[in-house]
Design brief:
alpha/beta; Rossmann fold; six-stranded parallel β-sheet; 6 strands; globular
């Protein structure tokens, strides 16, 4: 494993969401975390990242980070050696979902970010069990560190994002699609659909995870990523 690996965190997440994977993989391959906190359009976020990313790299995108990863693949496919999309979706916002983001942004701007995040990532969006409390605590710490302005920018970017189904159909690199069996935000059938769009994609369902597999099943996710990084560049 010699190619650089770039982790793209989810909405209101930072490097901590990939902490275990970064710690493990960084001993064998260059690793970096690309923040998706600036810009009110996915295209704007991706454009700014292209100036900072290695000339060619493997992308690992979680949730909103996966949406940014797909835009990077659309804009600069020659710079993406492989792609892993976790708990995400290639679809644009429906009018209903887009409208539902507005009151959340208003409340975040009014100083109620903690309440907004509790509503955005509810306990039942994660796998049942004692791990829920730990994961929700980490999410709370990350969101508080990033603050309401980031929440508003990221919400705007999600509202305005494009459909990326055609991008996935054109994908020519080793692709991993991962999701948690208990994910209610981006369910398994959405990921099965994504895997069908990409030629030769590998679909990995984490049975004991919800929306945040890198935190909920950190060791298992790390092993899956290790295997993905060993997949040959040329698909037959």
């Amino acid at each position: 494993m010699t190619e650089p690996v770039v982790f793209l965190p989810g909405m209101m997440c930072d490097a901590r969401v990939f902490g275990a994977q970064i710690l493990d993989l960084s001993g064998q391959t260059p690793v970096m975390v690309a923040p998706i906190t600036k810009g009110e359009r996915i295209e704007e976020i991706a454009s700014s990242l292209l100036d900072a990313l290695p000339a060619k790299c493997a992308l690992v995108g979680l949730s909103m980070g996966g949406i940014v990863a797909m835009e990077l693949l659309r804009r600069a496919p020659e710079r993406v050696s492989r792609i892993a999309l976790i708990s995400t979706s290639p679809l644009d916002d429906t009018p209903q979902i887009s409208a539902a983001r507005e009151p959340l942004m208003v409340r975040a701007k009014a100083g109620r970010l903690e309440d907004v995040m509790a509503e955005t990532l509810q306990p039942e969006y994660l796998a049942p069990g004692p791990k829920r409390v730990e994961v929700l605590s980490i999410v709370k710490e990350m969101s508080q560190a990033l603050g309401p302005d980031v929440f508003i920018r990221q919400s705007r970017a999600l509202q305005r994002r494009r459909d990326q189904q055609s991008t996935l159909r054109k994908c020519k690199v080793p692709a991993l699609i991962m999701c948690g069996a208990h994910d209610q935000l981006t369910p398994v059938k959405r990921h099965s659909f994504m895997a069908e769009l990409i030629p030769n994609a590998q679909l990995q369902i984490m049975e004991h995870s919800g929306h945040l597999p890198p935190l909920e099943q950190s060791d298992a996710v790390t092993q899956v990523l290790r295997d993905w990084l060993k997949m040959p560049f040329i698909l037959r």
